[in-house]
């Protein structure tokens, strides 16, 4: 009996040593960072940040929220007034390639077509694509409001929308030499509106899943992968997750209708809810995304490593890793990170990013 006990201790010690010797990519395949693409006047500093902060921390995935901060040739009318050129994007591509960082551009699709009292570029130039044209943008935005306006959506069934959207996706993926594209698809409050002549009376889950499939299938034609936020695939009322981190408008049932090769970016900012297990059980790859609470980020990376250790073989590789998110512009984040903008709170994206990657370093080789 004593020999058996000693043998078991030896086996456990060997297993622990082998785990400690596993390469980082095996333990945590995705180690990401998501932020708005820098404006041209902050590009040099952002490239230095990649060189001196992301690469040493072994970040291997960079999602840049580009939206219209690019000098589109297919639709120049949609460019921001100040936007990155193709040559400037090429510098980002070369820097990431040097460090073996996968670079993924994002353009917000379906939802987030407005913010506060400002209509986004797509609906500003193509107002016929608006899912709710009867909802007028207020002079001063307040929430809650009688229109239920958080952000505008485009109509996924409008016959003109995808010819424009596909042009943007193709051009931005070509410019970033990208093998994946992030479509956003989060916080869609307007979908299947009764007054929409195309969407009225349709199942919001089927409409949402249909848009995911449409975008995914277009990307697949050039062997590109779709990334998206996961909140619309979670039920918000019964779970208590609320209408931002989950859905109140029945889109959650789309989780059973979308392709299984979509990458889910599962964000929870107030609590470290363990929804990656739900996504993995549905056969979807998932990364966990913290924002500004360091304690949550530390708990979430511990959870992700535990999920990978304890999962069945088919589910293990669905738990893909972690991605820090930043919801300011790149310049504001850099000012905070380098101490030019002071904060009295420990709950900032800078502290969250630092603690997240310190924990990854501590827990992995």
Automatic annotation (TrEMBL):
Catalysis performed (reactions): Hydrolysis of terminal non-reducing N-acetyl-D-hexosamine residues in N-acetyl-beta-D-hexosaminides
Name assigned to this protein: beta-N-acetylhexosaminidase
Organism encoding this protein: Siphonobacter curvatus
GO MF terms held by the record: beta-N-acetylhexosaminidase activity
EC number: 3.2.1.52
Enzyme class: hydrolase
Domain Glycoside hydrolase family 20 catalytic: 81-290
The entry's keywords: Hydrolase, Signal
Spans through the membrane: none
Lineage summary: Bacteria, Pseudomonadati, Bacteroidota, Cytophagia, Cytophagales
């Amino acid at each position: 009996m004593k020999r058996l006990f000693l043998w078991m201790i030896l086996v456990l010690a060997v297993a622990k040593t082998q785990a400690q010797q596993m390469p980082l990519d095996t333990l945590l395949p995705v180690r990401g960072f998501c932020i708005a693409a820098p404006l041209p006047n902050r590009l040099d500093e952002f490239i230095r940040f990649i060189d001196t902060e992301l690469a040493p921390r072994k970040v291997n995935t960079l999602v840049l929220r580009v939206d219209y901060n690019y000098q589109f040739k297919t639709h120049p009318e949609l460019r921001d007034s100040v936007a990155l050129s193709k040559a400037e994007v090429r510098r980002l591509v070369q820097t990431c390639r040097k460090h073996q960082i996968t670079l993924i551009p994002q353009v917000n699709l379906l939802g987030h077509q407005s913010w506060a009292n400002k209509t986004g570029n797509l609906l500003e130039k193509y107002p016929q694509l608006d899912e709710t044209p009867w909802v007028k943008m207020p002079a001063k935005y307040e929430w809650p409001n009688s229109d239920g306006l958080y952000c505008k959506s485009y109509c996924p069934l409008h016959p003109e929308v995808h010819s424009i959207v596909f042009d943007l996706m193709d051009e931005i993926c070509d410019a970033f030499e990208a093998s994946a594209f992030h479509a956003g698809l989060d916080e869609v409050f307007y979908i299947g509106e009764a007054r929409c002549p195309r969407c009225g009376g349709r199942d919001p889950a089927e409409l949402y899943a249909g848009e995911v499939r449409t975008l995914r299938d277009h990307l697949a034609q050039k062997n590109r992968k779709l990334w998206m936020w996961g909140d619309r695939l979670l039920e918000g009322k019964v779970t208590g997750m609320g209408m931002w981190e989950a859905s109140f408008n029945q889109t959650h049932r789309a989780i059973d209708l979308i392709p299984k090769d979509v990458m889910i970016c599962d964000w929870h900012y107030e609590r470290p809810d363990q929804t990656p297990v739900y996504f993995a059980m549905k056969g979807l790859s998932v990364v966990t995304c913290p924002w500004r609470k360091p304690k949550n980020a530390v708990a979430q990376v511990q959870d992700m490593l535990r999920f990978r250790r304890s999962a069945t073989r088919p589910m293990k590789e669905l738990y893909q890793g972690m991605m820090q998110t930043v919801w300011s512009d790149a310049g504001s984040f850099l000012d905070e990170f380098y101490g030019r903008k002071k904060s009295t709170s420990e709950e900032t994206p800078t502290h969250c990013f630092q603690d997240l990657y310190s924990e990854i370093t501590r827990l992995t080789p």
